[in-house]
Amino acid sequence: MFKSLAQKPWLPWLLSAIIVILAAAVIVLLVFLKNQPPQVRGIPPMVEVSAHEPDSSIWGQNFPNQYTTLLRTEANNTRTQYGGSEPYSKLEADPHLLRLFAGYAFSIEYNEDRGHRNALTDVREIQRINEKSPATCYSCKSADNPALWEEMGMAAYDAMLFSEMTANIDEPIGCANCHEAGTMRLIVTNPALEEALEAQGKDWTTFTRQEMRTVVCANCHVEYYFAGEGKYLTFPWKNGTRIEDIEAYYETLQFTDWTHPDSQAPMIKMQHPEYEFFTASSTHYLAGVSCADCHMPYTRDGAVKFSTHDVHSPLLEPARSCGTCHTDVDYVTYRVAEIQDAVHATMMSCEDAIVEAIDRIAAAAANPAADADLIEEARRLHRAAQLRWDFIAAENSMGFHNPEEALRILANATDLARQAQVKALLAVKSQ
């Protein structure tokens, strides 16, 4: 070897020169790449989408698969055992609701919700909306809202009447409710959600994309109330998002939606608290599963992978929704049915207990000699029991989003209802 090098003294110089040239080429390449504009994922956009663009068909020119599947939510009105998207009357399906919501608008009309593209039509046709209803009722129904909130401010928006706001609302739920134009990143668009997160010391801009695949659903799928004369949309999360936290929040405010005409108890109506219920340490939530994983599962159009926007019950497509993680889909659907049947049976027993409590309280109140203090205690117990029952009844999974929590809350609600009955009986016997 050494003899060969001696015969070729130029060889080390040649190797050194090659190394220098290669190093220089690498440096030049790195500098070149550094100065290139950032790469655009996927196919370059066909059109530029303006900020808060309410018309989803414009977004659809860039994302045809997502838009096409979104449109299916208008016609996909399929019923499941305990939900789905068929707008059947819950009052007819469960006559107890007429007693439980007596004196409140939900005893007039209460239907199963349809898909996202029907939200605007349904809120305008529901009999619960009248000439006194605030514009706040539009808050979760339209892709026009993000632009209106930015332009008007939410306080001015909510202070208007529903009938006054109608002229500004044209588009149903769509892309602008969840996405930032241009980047397409998932964002919080509802000021009420941002304020509720801030009250908990949370900054949604720091959340991961997987976390946002659940958080964006909280723009709408939450418990809420209208605060003050301005009917300001507010999420009762200051103390936390479990039912006991929400109850404590309302008790501090002494908030009441209506007075029950039979028991005279000050009542609160729960509103679809899917986010609060699911995130209360449920098995799937702790495993890092998002709402979108099950309700908007990934699918393919040829080589293109995308999240379907035909948002519906996973039970309508269990192989796609559940099969990503579970190998035995038949067993999974069986277990879902078992869980939902158990929660439903427990919920019906709870309803029986609350209705019986209402009857006992009404009977005691009709007795002039009954103990007024015990009747008031019974009323407070009725309020607490129905608040918990309704947290599960209004949540749209028949307990499956968090089975253990559902059964815990319903057991507590039933116990409180029975305590209310006892207090009402004691009120009469104590005379």
What are the key terms here?
8 strands; two-stranded antiparallel sheet; 20 helices; 49% helix; mainly alpha; elongated
Give a description of the structure.
The structure is a single chain. With 431 residues, the chain is mainly α. The protein is 49% helix and 5% strand. The protein has 20 helices and 8 strands. The strands form 4 sheets. The protein has a two-stranded antiparallel sheet. The protein has a two-stranded antiparallel sheet with strand order 3-4. The protein has a two-stranded antiparallel sheet with strand order 5-6.
Question: What is this entry, summarized?
Answer:
Helices cover 49% and strands 5% of the residues. The chain is built from 20 helices and eight strands. The chain has a two-stranded antiparallel ribbon. Strands 3-4 form a two-stranded antiparallel sheet. Strands 5-6 form a two-stranded antiparallel sheet.
